[in-house]
Amino acid sequence: MVKPLLLVHGGAGDLPEASRPLHAAGCLEAAEAGGAVLESGGSVVEAACTAVEVLENNPIYNAGVGCALTRNGRVSLDSAVMDGKSRNAAGLAALDAFPNPVRIAQRMMEEPEVLLVGQPASEWAERHGFRRVPEDELTTESARKQWHKVVDEGADPNFAGGTVGCVARDASGNLAAATSTGGTMGKMPGRVGDSPLIGVGTYADDRCALSTTGHGEAFMRAVFAARVADAVRYGEDPQKALCRMLDRTRDFFGGYGGAILITAESGPHYFWTTVGMSHAWWSPDGTGSGI
Ligand code: ASP
Questions:
Q1: Fewer Cβ atoms within 10 A, N terminus or C terminus of the chain?
Q2: Whose CA is closest to 245, among 262, 232, 264, 234?
Q3: What is this structure's pTM?
Q4: Domain assignment of residue 125, given as a range
Q5: Quick count: other Cβ atoms within 10 Å of Cβ 156?
Q6: What is the DSSP letter of 275?
Q7: Which of 115, 119, 137, 135 is nearest to 127 (CA)?
Q8: Extended strands (E) in the chain
Q9: What number is the average pLDDT over the span 69-98?
Q10: Per-residue model confidence (pLDDT) at position 158
């Protein structure tokens, strides 16, 4: 038996000083919700999805309510879930306005397909009982302001306050990972980032689970999560593997970001090459958060 553990992130970036406590508190609330699922005997997948759902519902993060918008001001969501034991996985990309994409990905794990994109993905979600909402319901004033800055004033589409993710482990060492995002502010319509791609932004197997945040194009070029997972499988220290790959993603593939990782027996492991990354963890011994 190992100690259960759940770790969440609320995005890597350069958050204004004033909003940091709020971001850390939101992560802690999500970690506690996921931890409660583990404590009551729920699965690691359910725990990870519950934590991500809490973050999607919180308007300060770039996922679900408060998501980033495309260049033409539209909602386009990416999400993925992976179960380390069965290796079942599902991702959805360029999804229309659904409040909780992570729940759609969780449901899609029952299908043989691993990735659905665009209109057919949204239609599949509706056919399976998920409620599409008007885009305004997911668009906050602050996201709209940020969108104006990026699209009209040419500001840097900084991913601060970004993507959300969770990795979870139960007492048997089973692992799961889940990630959800609105992507980068002002992104090209149809653009897909690293988050919904299994082995890039989301990954779990019998040895480790990862969720990433940051400059998705660089993480895709780096084939991030699968490389870290294999390095851990073949003996590299998990924290070292994570730091090495984030440094490599910055230095060799040209992008900044962060990631969370737990293994079947160790963690929490987290690291970022941005100014910060809001995060929190839960274990039966207690909780903590940081930024
Ligand atoms: N990684 C996400 C993407 O590129 C953005 C983020 O982490 O904030 O879509």
A1: N
A2: 232
A3: 0.98
A4: 5-290
A5: 11
A6: S
A7: 119
A8: 5-13, 77-83, 89-95, 115-117, 164-169, 175-181, 202-204, 208-214, 257-263, 269-272, 276-283, 286-290
A9: 98
A10: 64
Ligand 1 pocket, residue 278 CB under 6 Å: no
In 3-state terms, what secondary structure has residue 194? coil
- Tell me, using a 6 A CB cutoff, whether residue 4 lines ligand 1: no
Which residues are catalytically annotated? 163
Q: Which two tokens stand for residue 237?
A: 């220290």
Weakest mean pLDDT among 37-46, 125-134, 152-161: 152-161
Share of the chain above pLDDT 90, in %: 95
Q: Which residues pair with 78 in a beta bridge?
A: 181
φ, ψ for residue 77, nearest 5 deg: -105, 145
**222-247: pLDDT as tens digits:** 999 999 999 999 999 999 999 999 99
* Ligand 1 within 6 A of CB of 162: yes
**How many domains does one find in the chain?**
1
Nearest CA to ligand 1 atom 9: 183
